[in-house]
Design goal:
CATH class: Alpha Beta
Shape: globular
Keywords: Flavoprotein, FMN, Monooxygenase, Oxidoreductase
Order of helices and strands: EHEHEEHEHHEHEHEEHHEHEH
CATH topology: TIM Barrel
Number of helices: 11
Structural class: alpha/beta
Helix content: 40-55%
Strand order of the largest sheet: 1-2-3-5-6-7-8-11
CATH superfamily: Luciferase-like domain
Largest sheet: 8 strands, parallel, barrel
CATH architecture: Alpha-Beta Barrel
InterPro entries: Lucif-like_OxRdtase_MSMEG_2516 (IPR019923), Luciferase-like_dom (IPR011251), Luciferase-like_sf (IPR036661), SsuD_RutA_monooxygenase (IPR050172)
Protein name: LLM class flavin-dependent oxidoreductase
Number of strands: 11
Length: 287
């Protein structure tokens, strides 16, 4: 199969003002990013609200949840919000779903939802995906006045890193983002992709594969250590793929190699590095 063309997403969570958030969306669009991706935590902007605001001031920029922890929502609520944002973005939504990152357990008291075992949460995610697909498709042809712009439903992105999540994502997702420990090495990344390829079988080539960059370059802010839970300097020293370093041309070559060897064509980056990655986006986006 011919390699997929590159596209890039910016992961952003906060802004000091509404205007700053709108300007961030504009800037991402102007720089050639495909998608503005919003995480779902109690310490950041509520993703559907933030993404609706971003979509309303841009023309081509796609918007995506990155990712909704399915255990914290009823499936019907996800369907409702999905239909609304797909409409308000004029069909630019990517619905990112996950089983809940480990740190999300601390938010249970605020969400007023149970945080079950990994197996329970994976089942909740599987159920949510099935219901979203069925109900959004039904809304397209049924009596509902709220109809999806993207048919049969917006692309579904699933964050996965373990074998059970790979099994679910390989069966159901349009896009898989590799949810790996930032300390994962290049060899470890290749091993995970090989595992996913084995699980997905013939469906592997139909899935868009994404990887999230935590940082770009070697001049990294101190607070990134707390955000990542590991010293970025250690990652740079070990060559971990979570931090992309080198000249723009060297960074582009690294991403091309990963795309050609592993199939990773959708690159997400921490929004604070929007400008640092921009020269690479200019070289690679759409190629």
């Amino acid at each position: 199969m011919h390699p997929r063309t590159f596209r890039f997403g910016a992961v952003a969570a906060l802004a000091p003002t509404a205007r700053a958030w709108q300007e961030l969306a504009h800037r991402a669009e102007d720089l050639g990013y495909s998608t503005l991706l919003a995480p779902d935590t109690m310490a950041t902007l509520e993703p559907f609200t933030a993404l609706t605001a971003a979509a309303s001031v841009t023309d081509t920029l796609r918007v995506g949840t990155f990712v909704l922890p399915a255990p914290f929502y009823t499936a019907s609520e996800i369907v409702w919000r999905t239909l609304a944002l797909d409409l308000l973005s004029a069909g630019r939504l990517e619905l990112g779903l996950g089983a809940g990152r480990p740190a999300a357990e601390t938010e249970v008291v605020h969400r007023e939802r149970p945080f079950g075992t990994p197996a329970e949460r994976i089942k909740q995610l599987a159920d949510a995906i099935h219901i979203v697909k069925a109900e959004v498709a039904a809304a397209a042809t049924g009596r509902s006045l709220l109809k999806p712009v993207q048919r049969p439903h917006p692309p579904i992105l699933v964050a996965a890193g373990g074998h059970r999540m790979f099994q679910l994502a390989a069966a159901e997702a349009d896009i898989i983002t590799l949810g790996l420990d930032p300390r994962t090495t290049e060899e470890g990344l290749a091993e995970k992709v090989a595992e996913l390829r084995d699980v997905a079988g013939s469906r592997f080539d139909t899935i868009e594969l994404s990887f999230n960059l935590s940082g770009v370059g070697t001049d990294l802010p101190d607070f990134l250590r707390h955000q990542m839970g590991v010293d970025p300097a250690e990652l740079i020293k070990s060559g971990a793929p979570a931090i992309l370093t080198g000249t723009p041309q060297e960074m582009a070559d690294t991403l091309r190699r990963r795309r050609d060897e592993l199939g990773i064509s959708y690159i997400a980056v921490n929004g604070m590095f929007l400008e640092q990655l921009a020269p690479v986006v200019e070289m690679l986006a759409g190629t």
